[in-house]
Amino acid sequence: MTRFFLVRHGQKTTPDPLLVGRTPGIHLSEHGRAQADAIAERLGAEEIARVVSSPLERARETAEPLARLKGLKVETMAEFHETDFGEWTGHTIDQLAGVSQWRRYNEFRSATPAPGGETMLQMQQRFVSGMLTLRGRYPSQGVAIFSHGDPLRAAIAYFAGAPVDFWHRFEIGVGSISVVDLGDDCVKIQKLNDVPLPNP
């Protein structure tokens, strides 16, 4: 059985109401770096064979302290990328509030794509596929995956047997750790939304 440590990146430098999506160059704040250190300390005693991250800086920076502690490199996998919000990237939530497709997207994410982007179901499929690939490579070891809020919610929903449209029922805080064990015919969600250092 593979134990997955699913980690949401630490606090970023941009304000939360801004939908940064896959915008490059978004880094951790000072508090976010402290969260990354706290995550490494929390997971320090765990047996972890591989540290994998979304390609985005804020996820990789969150992964680096744990990778250093374990003597590993942070490896990126596109499967764990942030949601592709397409044309909505860079807009604030207030700017999108009056957009009818944005409202549909939040009510029925499984089938409503962001313009020029992806549906949540597509994102869930790629994320879960990445996890299953890693399970095949590390069948009895631990793997840490550093990613983003919505992809992690989608993955948790999948393994909980919940429709992806129930994504919002799973709290995945900034700088949080969730733990999922995957075997050939067994899934156990061992921990959800453990935040070693909450946001101020």
Layout: helices, strands, pairs:
Layout: E1 2-8, H1 30-43, E2 50-53, H2 57-70, E3 74-76, H3 93-96, H4 100-107, H5 120-137, E4 142-147, H6 149-160, E5 177-182, E6 187-194
Parallel strand pairs: 1-4, 2-3, 2-4
Antiparallel strand pairs: 1-5, 5-6
Structural features, described:
By secondary structure, the protein is an alpha/beta fold. It has a single domain (2-194), classed as Phosphoglycerate mutase-like (Rossmann fold). Helix content is 35%, strand content 17%. The protein is built from six helices and six strands. The protein has helices at residues 30-43, 57-70, 93-96, 100-107, 120-137, 149-160, and strands spanning 2-8, 50-53, 74-76, 142-147, 177-182, 187-194. The chain has a six-stranded mixed beta sheet with strand order 3-2-4-1-5-6, with helices on both faces. Helix 2 links the parallel strand 2 and strand 3 (74-76). Helix 1 packs parallel to helix 2 and helix 5 (120-137) crosses helix 6. The radius of gyration is 16 Å and the shape is globular. The termini are far apart. The model has no long low-confidence stretch (mean pLDDT 97).
